[in-house]
Model the fold of this input.
Amino acid sequence: MTNAQLYTIVALCIYAIVMALIGCFSYGKSKTLDGFLIGGRNIGAWASAFAYGTTYFSAVVFVGYAGQHGWNIGVGAIWIGIGNAVLGCLLSWLLFANRTRKMTKKLAAKTMPEYFEKRYDSKGMKVLAAIIIFVFLVPYSAAVYKGLGSLFSAVFPGVETWVWMLIIACLTAVYLVIGGYVATAYTNLVQGVVMIAGVICLIVAVLNHENVGGLSGLIQNLGNYKSLPGDPNPITGEQLTSIFGGSSFKFLCFNIMLTSFGTWGLPQMIGKFYAIKDTAAIKRGTIISTIFCVVIGCGAYLIGSTSRLVLNGQLPEGGVDAVIPAVLMEVLGNGVLGLILLAVIMILLLSASMSTLVSVVLTSASAVSVDLIPAIRKKNMKPETQMLLTRLLCFAFVVCSFIFATRNIPIIVNLMSFSWGLVSGCFIGPYVWGLFSKKITKIGAYAGILSGLLTVGGATLVITLTNNFSAAAAKSPEMGVAAMAVSMIVVPVVSLLTKNKDIARVDEIFECYNEE
Done:
């Protein structure tokens, strides 16, 4: 066993013990469905802010996006991190946090489908939303497993990737099933602290690498960069140092919009606003979460932009997904301090992934236990039965995600490409307009969900028939952005052409903004 492996195992054991203790501590606060799903609407500013930020950024961001975009675009990729912090975090908290908290409390809604049912008086919409969440978010969690498993395999090359994914699944299941959202919120707080410390340490280590030469050296050395002979995708120093992404400007814009505005309609992100305890906590949480996202988002893409220098222009054997793991091993693979930092970074990426994973699993499980099954059975379950079912489904979805990730089931892999944009594209219009306008009708909300679904589905079908499915998957960012835009436009337009049949009920709902 190498020193790197030993330090990582020790750090992993300490981390696992802390997570299990938090789960056990939170059990007493998660015996009711409200407590399990939204922490009894009593989560403070720091825990809520870190829960939002850690759910936003997983190992997929570091291993996938930061590595790929940093390698192919250069320093311009940092704009994705800036966009995520300003549009995906700050603006989301300013516009939606307080309204979401007040309206979902008024409606006694614990999930996004339940919000749709009670806001628009439609059980059918609740069922449709629950199905969309189940079909597209479980595959997304499988992508999180794969990203993290490949990273640990870089440090432990003799251990199969599935072993690490199994360890991640067990850790996730333990504290989620025992402690629910309360455990998730407090573990997110711990995970967030680890992520900030890890990213700052990694930035310092990468910038001090001899091939980078600090922040000024980064720009100068990237400007002088020349691709290796025989590189199938040669790139110029001018491209790598272009502040607006150079020839990748259009691609950069679509990714900023998808990953930033996408949070406005994702149930695992919006759910954090249900649980925050009061307006004062929201004000503090807005600042905390934005600072967190600036550090993590911009830090990840800054690290990615150094990759060509650190790796001497040699793309690792595993392609762009292996860029960040290779950078880690190059920068931190030697010396006691470097090995300690490597262990911290591995826990950072584990923390980022697990926080995202538990949020997605909790959202998917509640969509079935709270929204789908009661609607199909057409009668309410006993609270104790629903509570037990939700815990069991959390465990089942962790297992399903693990199986999907290890088996590379083609349909699951394909769904991953579309999950973020499609889910947000379906929900963003009905959710956002439902918070702000009394004039939005049930038909308008339905039109928003279906238009988002059809935009992605229709575009995928056309591109697949005229070219192939791989070409359609490559266009998934553009499809996701289009779906969100269409949903935001269709909802108010259709609502103008239809009538709200229950004005008194809607007026009563909006009274929530005058309360407190």
About this structure: The longest helix spans residues 161-207. The chain has two domains: 3-17+37-42+51-408, 417-516.
